[in-house]
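user: Kindly work through both lines:
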Amino acid sequence: MSSKGLSANEVEFLKGRIEKYRLPVPDVRDAEKALHVLSLSSTTLENGLIVRLVVNKGGHPQEVDLAFDPVVTYEVINVLKKAGLEMGWLDSKGEVRVAKSRS
């Protein structure tokens, strides 16, 4: 990988890996056992992104570091943006929508 991006072979390899390990879509029942994110920070690297999360695990904050390659990063961005727009959490600029007061 160069600082200008991935080669076509690298992209195909990473896409294939995503498909190889793709999981079933979670449903509402999975929310009960999911780790809830309390905070995050991140840094970019030449080969991807590192995200440090603080999650609530058993009522206690715990740090978790996740490494994302560029293809997974792209997928995560699209999943989050699509969900935010469909559910009305985000406006068309990608900003968190603030509810209007009912006065």
In short: DSSP finds two helices and three strands in the chain. Strands lie at 36-45, 48-57, 60-68. The longest strand covers residues 36-45.
